[in-house]
Design brief:
Length: about 425
């Protein structure tokens, strides 16, 4: 299983993706997602300039050893660029090993614990009536759980709210990364007011519950925009509406900040989509300050590292809720689904459907049926990269927005 080639493919079928394609001497290929939204070329350079030369001639079957070699051997550890690169290598090697074994990856991880992974979709609206229409549309598509994001009166744009419609009147899924334009490209700037948000949001959930009843699992993403005491207030205000979770209520670099939130609310908490290491979670897990782990296979070191993180979380009764919007490529989504099926402490899986152009480049075999996702029984990850199609969509510089308060102060986006 000697590695004879490793190439980094950057493609932009509607948005940018970075994919590592590893090939063995027998012609078996494995794929790994290395996409880091808005900083894609940094990961490409890390892979091309520093990692790919180390892979050539090495044994693709030595997954754990390779992970440790790339993590410990570099001396400079962690960080999103490093861990996305390590994740791509790790995931590609698992894809190869499962193909050699002739079985889907979840079988190598211990076999299925469930028939499918409960998925939630992204319902949004610029106002409450539009939001209710979006929830209905997601239920019609088969979702059994929905994330609820809405506009705030007086604001032109708000995180999580789709701004355009398809030809039939259906809203596009939210995609925040925006193509850079102009002679000196800059990210879009959005205005934010946390107090206005805190006043408005409970009325939104009151309307959604009144329309759809108490059984539908509802989620919400605060996107790191609150201080701990603000997050504590929101969690308490939302308790009557029985959320499945409140996500990323506050920036969690200071893990101890979650103690204050936990002390004041029983609303379940999910956190970690920007985390890239188990070390980001140690206090959160050992003190049971969160209920769901939000990291992605793509950003947290791959299948090997994510499995270890989820096994540690299980010790403390914390479940998985892996990051899965469209800035996770179909390769990263498939890797998450194999883990979803295999780990005992699965909670829920975020799922945004990729565009038709993206699915021209990434040929998938996973399926969504009756609200559940299944990675398929195709050997490996079950995703193949069409290199020719990828070449038709060259990289286009894009940025995530920047958030500023009304007085111009930069705020967490």
């Amino acid at each position: 299983m000697q590695i004879v080639s490793a190439e980094v493919v950057v493609t932009s079928p509607g948005r940018n993706f970075v994919t590592l394609r590893v090939t063995t001497e027998d012609g078996v290929t494995g794929l790994g997602d290395a996409t880091l939204n808005g900083r894609e070329l940094a990961v490409r350079s890390y892979l091309d300039d520093h990692v790919v030369p180390l892979l050539l001639g090495s044994d693709a079957s030595r997954i754990e050893d390779t992970w440790q070699y790339l993590y410990r051997g570099a001396y400079w550890r962690r960080g999103p660029v490093t861990m996305a690169a390590v994740a791509a290598v790790d995931t590609a090697l698992w894809d190869i090993k499962a193909k050699y074994a002739g079985m889907p990856l979840y079988q190598l991880l211990g076999g299925a614990c469930r028939t499918g992974a409960l998925a939630y979709g992204h319902a949004s609206g610029r106002d409450v009536p539009e939001l209710l229409d979006s929830v209905r549309a997601h239920l019609e598509q088969g979702y059994r759980a929905v994330r609820v994001q809405t506009g705030i009166p007086g604001f032109d744009s708000v995180y999580g709210v789709a701004a355009s419609r398809a030809g039939g009147g259906e809203r596009y899924d939210y995609e925040p990364a925006r193509r850079a334009v102009g002679p000196v490209p800059r990210p879009a700037v959005e205005t934010w007011d946390t107090r206005a948000y805190l006043r408005h949001l409970p009325t939104v959930f009151e309307a959604v519950r009144a329309e759809f009843g108490p059984e539908l699992p509802l989620l919400h993403d605060g996107h790191h925009r609150m201080t701990p005491i603000q997050a504590a207030r929101l969690g308490k205000d939302l308790e009557p509406y029985d959320l499945f979770w409140l996500e990323d209520a506050t920036p969690a670099e200071d893990q101890a900040a979650l103690r204050l939130i936990r002390r004041h609310t029983t609303t379940p908490l999910a956190i970690g989509e920007v985390f890239n290491s188990v070390h980001d979670y140690t206090t959160l897990l050992s003190e049971r300050l969160i209920d769901y782990v939000r990291s992605a296979v793509t950003h947290a070191g791959g299948v090997t590292a994510m499995r270890k993180l989820l096994d540690l979380a299980a010790v403390y009764g914390v479940r998985s809720g892996m990051h899965g919007p469209t800035d996770i490529s179909p390769v990263g989504m498939a890797a998450a689904l194999h883990l979803d099926l295999a780990v005992h402490n699965f909670g829920i899986q975020e799922y945004m459907r990729h565009s038709a152009r993206t699915l021209e480049v990434f040929r998938t075999s996973y399926r969504f049926e009756d609200g559940l996702l299944h990675p398929s029984d195709t050997p490996g990850l079950g995703v193949e990269l069409d290199v020719g199609a990828a070449a038709r969509f060259p990289y286009q510089q894009a940025y995530l927005p920047v958030s500023r308060l009304r007085d111009g102060t930069v705020h967490d986006w």
